[in-house]
From TrEMBL:
<dbReference type="InterPro" id="IPR036267">
    <property type="entry name" value="RuvA_C_sf"/>
</dbReference>
<dbReference type="InterPro" id="IPR000085">
    <property type="entry name" value="RuvA"/>
</dbReference>
<dbReference type="GO" id="GO:0048476">
    <property type="term" value="C:Holliday junction resolvase complex"/>
</dbReference>
<feature type="region of interest" description="Domain III">
    <location>
        <begin position="167"/>
        <end position="217"/>
    </location>
</feature>
<dbReference type="GO" id="GO:0006310">
    <property type="term" value="P:DNA recombination"/>
</dbReference>
<dbReference type="InterPro" id="IPR012340">
    <property type="entry name" value="NA-bd_OB-fold"/>
</dbReference>
<feature type="region of interest" description="Domain I">
    <location>
        <begin position="1"/>
        <end position="64"/>
    </location>
</feature>
<keyword id="KW-0067">ATP-binding</keyword>
<comment type="function">
    <text>The RuvA-RuvB-RuvC complex processes Holliday junction (HJ) DNA during genetic recombination and DNA repair, while the RuvA-RuvB complex plays an important role in the rescue of blocked DNA replication forks via replication fork reversal (RFR). RuvA specifically binds to HJ cruciform DNA, conferring on it an open structure. The RuvB hexamer acts as an ATP-dependent pump, pulling dsDNA into and through the RuvAB complex. HJ branch migration allows RuvC to scan DNA until it finds its consensus sequence, where it cleaves and resolves the cruciform DNA.</text>
</comment>
<keyword id="KW-0234">DNA repair</keyword>
<keyword id="KW-0378">Hydrolase</keyword>
<comment type="similarity">
    <text>Belongs to the RuvA family.</text>
</comment>
<dbReference type="InterPro" id="IPR013849">
    <property type="entry name" value="DNA_helicase_Holl-junc_RuvA_I"/>
</dbReference>
<keyword id="KW-0238">DNA-binding</keyword>
<feature type="domain" description="Holliday junction DNA helicase RuvA C-terminal">
    <location>
        <begin position="169"/>
        <end position="214"/>
    </location>
</feature>
<dbReference type="GO" id="GO:0009379">
    <property type="term" value="C:Holliday junction helicase complex"/>
</dbReference>
<protein>
    <recommendedName>
        <fullName>Holliday junction branch migration complex subunit RuvA</fullName>
    </recommendedName>
</protein>
Amino acid sequence: MIGKLSGRLDYRASDHILIDVGGVGYVVYCSERTMAVLPGPGEAVSLFTELLVREDLLQLFGFTSLVEKEWHRLLMTVQGVGAKASMAILSTLGPDGVSRAVTLGDWNAIKAAKGIGPKTAQKVVLELKDKAPNVMAMGGSLAAAQGNVVKATSEDDVLEPISAPTASAQAEALSALVNLGYGHGDAAGAVAQAAGEGAAETPALIRAALKLLAPKD
């Protein structure tokens, strides 16, 4: 299994690139969002990869983050969602957008992707809803591991003293919400409220906090 490639970007096409790794060229397909942030030809590039193996096809897909890669893997477990459809969803929403849409049950957001009909969008939400918080928590854990620990911006953002395991879960949930674009104060307040209402594990905290942060009709 090829899990990551680092080398020189030889050329770019509309949906794939060629990476030269020690004299060997790898064709890697990417979402539109990933393509938009890649460097130009001749520059160094590093991508996480997923290898699709079929009887008549070997195809590499590239991702800028492990969260994006994980969503690609999960999306392809849904019947009717192949590699092309998965990349279309990620191109439209990005990994954070997919996390938010699936967690909140917003199948209309999934349907906005090219080639995705309402039935398929609903299946994505129904089959992956319970898995979304775990993917988001993974993003929070990675950010913390890289030193990107979210710090409170005011005294109001500080969470109450709690036990170590719960504190870790709240920190991961807070990091995941901030990565989705929520403000530190709003996210911290939602996580604290979710914890006060009984949520303890990271996925449960994220799910409950997202419901609290969702726009009210």
